[in-house]
Write a structure and sequence with these properties.
The complex is a heterodimer of chains A (about 270) and B (about 150). By secondary structure, chain A is an alpha+beta fold. Chain A contains ten helices and five strands, in the order ααααααβαββαββαα. A five-stranded antiparallel beta sheet of chain A has the order 1-5-4-3-2. Chain B has a five-stranded antiparallel beta sheet. In chain B, strand 4 and strand 5 form a beta hairpin. Chain B is globular, with a radius of gyration of 16 Å. Classes of the chains: A alpha+beta (about 270), B alpha+beta (about 150). Chains A and B meet through helix 1, helix 4, strand 2, helix 8 and strand 4 of A and helix 1, strand 2, helix 3, strand 3 and helix 4 of B.
């Protein structure tokens, strides 16, 4: 996707204003209708030879796909996932073919005609990409299924005892304890805090470093925190549910990390109430 | 302006692949990180919120041997809201207080937050949806204001 250097600032701002006007509107129900005929099997062979290096062997996209922020990357752009329901719904066959015919200026995507392919070869590749619709999405493109936004366990111990057990469990999970504070710390005067709502912050910096490289947005739910509360006479220990958050991020690369984090949180919670 | 062009490119690129554009509130501040951090906190306070803590994520990473750009988390909220919501909806506590991520990108600073309205998917109760709507407007206003500071 090249930069729109040919557009003036005012034109760019008009585009932004137009896009900003979309929230709240129903998305248009326009399915691509312009099917291009081609031989899928031959298209697969050509895809493997010419496309897979950037777009992934199964159309899962290049490393970093889904990242919408512009932290420094080794590549000028990220090759998008083609085997992705959103892409396939939005991209017509004509659009895909045009991209293959002409390439995309300012990106590693070169014209396939200039690489020696014929138009019928390009049709075959388009047919192969379109055939992704008939397949299950690759594991990385799935949305993790989970209902509850929080993970909760009831503790048989007091808040103070549970906090100590959480600290021990955090250490056992090879995470560094950062601090223990009440939810209202910073909002109320010192000495007035409600200790029935205590948060244990911790971090696995190796994991954090890996996650931030994939997507700097994960910082929204960092550092790792386990909350211990007393409510209605019961002591509960709870965390966010990382599986549920994978939907917010909509970055398939974060799915594995969310799964890992989910397991770590469950271990800590269960260790804390043993 | 090149950076804005790139941002437009990323937005447009994302439109074909993702429906998640509204799930993230984001702004670019054309100020170096220290000035942007100060202005952000002042803007948050000007909207009637308390900044309860600033977490220096990059320091922990650096001390653990990783290289990273400047990266902070700003926690903020209103005392009465935190008290009332956490008492009535304890399951909301892991998502409180509100958080803004701030990180440096060259000479600019990026700020981002999850759209508070998205919490409505998790906690779908009328009184909460109303509160999430207020937060969403406030976070957008904070981002608008801080990005306009010359």
């Amino acid at each position: 996707m090249p930069a729109f250097t040919q557009l003036a600032d005012a034109e760019l701002e008009s585009i932004i204003a137009h896009i900003r006007s979309w929230p709240g509107q129903k998305p248009p129900k326009t399915a691509p209708q312009d099917r291009i005929a081609g031989y899928v099997a031959h298209g697969q062979t050509l895809y493997t030879r010419h496309c897979a290096a950037c777009h992934g062997a199964h159309g899962e996209g290049g490393h970093g796909t889904g990242v919408t922020l512009s932290r420094p990357r080794s590549a000028p752009i990220l090759a998008p996932a083609l085997n992705n329901p959103g892409f396939l719904a939005a991209a017509s066959d004509t659009l895909i073919k045009t991209t293959l015919l002409n390439g995309r200026e300012g990106t590693p995507m070169r014209s396939f005609l200039k690489q020696g392919l014929k138009e019928r070869d390009i049709n075959d590749i388009v047919a192969y990409v379109r055939s992704f619709e008939q397949l299950s999405p690759p594991p990385g493109a799935r949305v993790l299924e989970s209902e509850s936004p929080v993970l909760v366990r009831v503790s048989p111990y007091s808040v103070e005892e549970t906090v100590e057990k959480v600290k021990t469990a955090v250490g056992a999970a090879n995470m560094r304890l950062i601090r223990v504070q009440t939810l209202d710390q910073g909002f109320v005067a010192d000495g007035k805090e409600n200790h029935d709502q205590t948060i244990v912050y911790s971090c696995d910096f190796s994991f954090l470093n890996e996650a931030l490289k994939v997507d700097p947005r994960v910082g929204l739910f960092l550092p790792c925190r386990v909350t211990v509360i007393r409510h209605a006479g019961k002591v509960q220990v709870m965390t966010i549910n990382p599986k549920r958050l994978s939907r917010i991020f909509n970055n398939a690369e974060l799915n594995d990390l969310c799964e890992q984090m989910y397991k770590v949180y469950v271990e800590i919670l269960e260790e804390s109430v043993l | 302006m090149n950076r804005l062009r790139m941002l437009v490119v990323f937005v447009l690129l994302g439109l074909g692949v993702s429906a998640a554009a509204d799930e993230l509130l984001m702004a670019r501040i054309t100020q170096p990180f220290p000035e942007a951090m100060n202005n952000l906190q002042e803007t948050i306070r000007a909207k009637g919120y308390v900044v309860s803590r600033v977490q220096r994520v990059d320091v922990g990473l650096t001390s653990s041997g990783f290289q990273t750009a400047e990266y902070r988390l700003v926690f903020f909220g209103k005392q009465a809201e935190i008290r009332e919501l956490s008492a009535a909806y304890p399951e909301l506590i892991p998502y409180l207080p509100l958080t803004i991520v701030v990180f440096a990108e060259g000479d600019d600073t990026l700020v981002l937050a999850t759209d508070p309205l998205k919490l409505g998917e998790f906690f779908n109760k009328p009184e909460l949806l109303k509160r999430f709507g207020v937060w969403e407007k406030d976070v957008r206003a904070i981002f608008d204001d801080v990005s306009r500071i010359p």
